[in-house]
Amino acid sequence: MKYRFLIYGLLGWTMEIFWTGLGSLLRGDFRLQGFSYLWMFPIYGLAVFLEPVHDHIRNLTWVIRGSIWTTVIFGIELITGLAIELTVGKVPWDYTGSSYYSIAGLIRLDYAPVWFVVGLLFEKVDDFMRTKIHL
Question: Residue 134's pLDDT is what?
Fold first, then answer.
């Protein structure tokens, strides 16, 4: 389980750095500066605890599964954001003012398609780790 936690954490970090680097390109910054927060590693690592959810929804259509993952990821983003804010006084990914679709600065509803795809990708990672490398 600890190896899968590490893999999910590293994969999440990598995807976030790539995503923010792509965003800098779209803003005209050809340095492609990507970033993340140290907080994100354990948050992405928590995906290991979602593997039972994957087992439970495995036979549903991809549209329903992606919708479930979107909702779950929004929930995790909201809960972990609130926990960090209560602990240190500020949430690292504060979306306040960055999008009309921001809720309390903690989640952005316009990221729903991204979380939909990320959830389905993490299913593939889960299956690969369990069947191919037996982690």
Answer: 82
